[in-house]
Amino acid sequence: MKIDIGGGVRLFVDVEGPGLVPDGPRMREKPTLICMHGGPGFDHSAFKPAFSQLGDLAQIVYYDHRGHGRSDARPSDEWTLDHWADDIVRLCDALGIEKPIVLGQSFGGFVAQRYIARHPAHASKVVLSSTSHHMGLDRKLAAFERRGGPQARALAEAFWSRPSKATFEAYWAGVRHLYNTKPAADPEAGSRTLMNLDILLHFVAGEKQDLGLLQGLAKAQCPVLVMVGEDDPVCPLEDALDIHAAIPAQWRQLARFPGVGHGAWRDDPAAAFPVLRRFIAE
């Protein structure tokens, strides 16, 4: 379904599970988990069906960011972290959601970090999964070289330094398999993703080059779980450690997953989902 969040902006939203469930003589309200996808330029489909296993703990809301996937197209001047971060609040207002648990994967983690900075009291909890706070090109290049040798480093440097259709296509064909350390549990998942390359190139050439998200994390007012695969080449471990250190000590939690790449819930679901379950339930 599409939800109007104001200003003529309609987002594609899919809701999994009830928010109220029978519990003896009463109706018990489950927390709402909002899943924000990566990219930019991708859609929410990568979360499915893996995240369905959390449905006993939380009502799950998936959506496609403004301009992405099945959400309405929007002009390029709205392809910014401020717009995407504020959309979380607008979407919650439209759906009547209070104190959500917000999970951002990769680029969704960029959005979640800006959301913390702009709306620090809005969430009940935040999960930052396989994400970064800056371009961090040197770290990326070193990580890709460790995973795939000099050719992987060269492809990564070409795309992240000079984003274009040609450099992206060469990069994606040459290094996509290095993002993860295990074969995809669902090899057809990528073919289901709706891709908007224009948004990706616009963001990488622009806002991504000077991301600078660490300072805003000091404003956090709720528990924040940082999840990182220790062999993630595109959002390296060092970035996650920086993010964790920037969050106020009383709110920060860190989960490191050895032998894991981009998305611990992809490469080691047996370890990652129990961590998520504990964080949601505590």
Automatic annotation (TrEMBL):
<dbReference type="InterPro" id="IPR002410">
    <property type="entry name" value="Peptidase_S33"/>
</dbReference>
<dbReference type="GO" id="GO:0016787">
    <property type="term" value="F:hydrolase activity"/>
</dbReference>
<keyword id="KW-0378">Hydrolase</keyword>
<comment type="similarity">
    <text>Belongs to the peptidase S33 family.</text>
</comment>
<dbReference type="InterPro" id="IPR050266">
    <property type="entry name" value="AB_hydrolase_sf"/>
</dbReference>
<dbReference type="InterPro" id="IPR029058">
    <property type="entry name" value="AB_hydrolase_fold"/>
</dbReference>
<protein>
    <submittedName>
        <fullName>Alpha/beta hydrolase</fullName>
    </submittedName>
</protein>
<dbReference type="InterPro" id="IPR000073">
    <property type="entry name" value="AB_hydrolase_1"/>
</dbReference>
<dbReference type="Pfam" id="PF00561">
    <property type="entry name" value="Abhydrolase_1"/>
</dbReference>
<feature type="domain" description="AB hydrolase-1">
    <location>
        <begin position="31"/>
        <end position="263"/>
    </location>
</feature>
